[in-house]
Amino acid sequence: MITNSSITVLVVDDDEMIRECVAAYLEDEGFTVFTAESSEKGLESVTSVHPHVCITDMRLPGINGDQFIIRAHQLYSGTRYLLHTGMLYSLSDELRLIGMTADDVLLKPIHDLSKLVARIRYLATDGGHHAVG
């Protein structure tokens, strides 16, 4: 059985309060969590940490969440992505091609964080097309 402690999550958000609150909640749930305040730092973390799941904001300084996910996927294709955004958003064809679905877009604020945990577990296991290992 896969436990939350065997799942690594990267949270990329330029809003410190959101980034730290999401990270703290996920750590309390047992996940191993890393954070990045920009897409550039996030790309560094994807290549060094190889997280199972990355939660990224759409509006980031520099490259936006879409472009971050595309670039990160090119650097390490084993990570799955959740887009955390405060705006209505439809997935681009490029993000659909790497396996994202409408279920991977979460609107801020997330009122039921247990749904976030469930989606992370789903993506980090066979439901997300690869198993934690």
What would you say this structure looks like, in words?
It is built from 5 helices and 5 strands; from the N terminus they run βαβαβαβαβα. The protein is an alpha/beta fold. It has one domain (4-128): 3-Layer(aba) Sandwich (Rossmann fold), CATH 3.40.50. It is globular. The termini are close together.
Oligomer state equals single chain
Main sheet characteristics? 5 strands, parallel
- Rg (CA only): 13 Å
How many E-type strands? 5
N-to-C series of helices and strands: EHEHEHEHEH
TL;DR?
The chain has 133 residues and is α/β, with parallel strands linked by helices.
SSE arrangement:
Elements: E1 8-12, H1 16-28, E2 32-36, H2 39-49, E3 53-57, H3 65-75, E4 80-85, H4 93-97, E5 105-107, H5 113-123
Helix pairs in contact: 2-3
Keywords:
single chain, Rossmann fold, globular, 5 helices, 133 residues, alpha/beta
